[in-house]
Design brief:
Elements lengths: L6 E5 L4 H16 L3 E8 L4 H13 L4 E6 L16 H11 L4 H6 L7 E5 L3 H11 L3 E5 L3 H15 L9 E2 L7 E2 L13 H13 L4 E4 L3 H12 L10 E3 L13 H6 L6 E5 L8 H14 L2 E5 L13 H5 L1 H7 L3 E4 L5 H6 L3 E6 L3 H10 L3 E3 L6 H11 L2 E3 L12 H12 L2 H18 L4 H14 L1
Parallel strand pairs: 1-2, 1-4, 2-3, 4-5, 5-8, 8-9, 10-11, 10-13, 11-12, 13-14, 14-15
Antiparallel strand pairs: 6-7
Helix pairs in contact: 5-7, 6-7, 10-16, 14-17
The protein binds 5-bromouridine 5'-(tetrahydrogen triphosphate).
Length: 456
């Protein structure tokens, strides 16, 4: 342990998109001599989360863990015909259990120096950190543009500004956004996502600092505006510390298949850990991949929550399809190590929902992204993919692919995989990403700054 090193407790919320950056930061801080405690929420929504936490703790014996048993919660607003997203319910359940944290956290030894918490805990953590006299840092797991939206949105709500009529949306100090880029539940006054986003925005301002998994070269304008106090006055300093790197590299049967494919020939297809396409969307995407003529590695999900995902690949895509593409496509349903896949020389592109972790991972490896946002922050993320040169985003595809046909998908995939100009631009983004996180880079400096202020 480093002399005078800080003891940092990390509190992730729910879903792999939130957990992954927390585990990466935990390993990074522990590797740099900090004492680290991971607060483990019970129960988790997905099996993947609990498996990753167990595995992480067993391979990082130097990281301590603290069990946090949350109180069960059912959304009273839920209309039975539209079940609320189980991850949203979990965010709210964690927020409602915040009062259980002070006795747990104050029992730790050596005493804590700071907390690093997920944005979804922001409203609940302020009384906790005040009570324990501990500085709280938010680790924001999406892009800086989404952070700007979260910081600004309470003002929209306070002023009763209607966002329904104007086709555009303004965040002070930033270029106007088309309203269609915002997460759709923001337009529903009663939606749990809107309620959470507003309370998170109010909580955010009380943090000591905000760490984000992005890097200067990717979002310099937004980061500067956030730190100028233009978006909301009193916003704590925003430190870009990304892209966060993995703590281990997994293997799987897919590796031998990938290794048999020519360099740059394979399209990796994944919509992240919490998006399951409908049966029709799966059929059209399969048709598109087939028509594109390119090789592909497709991570398929049949259900939002893995515990409820029991369908076989063949049931989802059909036996005939599997037979037709067997020489150039591999479809998997198990968890894969996406980082290792993106790193592989056979990969030439990534058809992605643009979850923020996926974007930062593609950026690191300089893999061109064909953006196909599905919900939440993903259009904002896709806009960065496009503006940075990391990839292409066909905006007319909208959210998901309700009306999209295989023909169109296939044509785009083929054009995208042949785009040499894009490959060069994505390679440049990769160089910037690795420079930022590497020794002496902006992100490394910001991380050291965080560790030093945490020590005091
Ligand atoms: Br699926 C899958 N293997 O099989 P995002 C995902 N991942 O390593 P999401 C795997 O999970 P949110 C798999 O590399 C990334 O680190 C992937 O996070 C990894 O999207 C993470 O990309 C997924 O942010 O989360 O899952 O939709 O909605 O919170 O953005």
């Amino acid at each position: 342990r480093m002399e005078n090193s800080p003891h940092v407790a990390l509190l992730p919320s729910a879903g792999m998109g939130h957990l992954t950056p927390f585990l990466r930061l935990a390993a990074t801080l522990a590797g740099r001599g900090c004492t680290v405690t991971l607060v483990v929420t019970h129960p988790t929504v997905s099996l993947t989360e609990s498996q990753h936490i167990t595995h992480f703790l067993s391979t990082h014996p130097q990281v301590h863990s603290l069990n946090f048993h949350i109180l069960p919660f059912d959304d009273p607003i839920t209309d039975n015909s539209i079940p609320t997203d189980p991850f949203f319910l979990q965010f709210e359940a964690i927020q409602r259990s915040g009062h259980l944290l002070p006795p747990l956290l104050s029992s730790l030894s050596p005493p804590l120096s700071s907390l690093v918490t997920d944005i979804m805990l922001a409203p609940t953590i302020d009384p906790v950190s005040t009570h324990l006299c501990l500085p709280n840092y938010v680790l924001f797991t999406s892009c800086a543009k989404m952070l700007a939206l979260v910081a600004h949105f309470p003002t929209v709500s306070d002023k009763g500004i209607s966002i329904d009529l104007d086709p555009n949306f303004d965040i002070p100090g930033l270029p106007t956004l088309p309203k269609s880029w915002l997460p759709p539940p923001l337009f529903d006054q009663t939606h749990i996502f809107r309620r959470l986003l507003i309370s998170n925005g109010r909580g955010l301002i009380k943090a000591k600092g905000i760490l984000t998994n992005t890097f200067q070269a990717l979002e310099s304008e937004t980061l500067a505006t956030l730190n100028d106090g233009k978006i909301v006055s009193g916003l704590p300093p925003v430190l870009a510390i990304g892209p966060l790197e993995p703590y281990e590299y997994g293997q799987g049967p897919w590796i031998s298949w990938l290794s048999a494919q020519p360099a740059g020939s394979v399209m990796y297809v994944s919509f992240g850990s919490r998006t399951a396409l409908s049966k029709e969307e799966i059929r059209e995407l399969g048709d598109g991949l087939e028509k594109s003529g390119v090789r592909f590695l497709w991570v398929l999900k049949g259900n939002k929550v893995d515990k409820e995902d029991s369908q076989e690949i063949e049931d989802l895509v059909g036996y005939d399809f599997l037979k037709r593409v067997k020489n150039r496509g591999l479809i998997v349903k198990d968890w894969v190590d996406q980082w290792v896949i993106l790193e592989h020389v056979a990969i030439g592109g990534f058809l992605s929902h643009c979850g923020w972790n996926s974007v930062t991972e593609a950026a690191w490896h300089g893999v061109p992204v064909l953006a196909w946002p599905q919900h939440g922050d993903q259009k904002l993320n896709a806009s960065i993919v496009k503006s940075s040169g990391l990839g292409l985003w066909e905006e007319s595809w909208g959210w998901g692919g309700e009306k999209l046909k295989g023909e169109e998908i296939g044509k785009r995939i083929r054009e995208f995989m042949e785009n040499e100009e894009l490959k060069k631009k994505a390679t440049n983004v990769g160089e910037e990403a690795r420079k930022a996180a590497g020794k002496g880079g902006n992100s490394e400096k910001a991380l050291i700054e965080f560790m030093q202020t945490s020590k005091k």
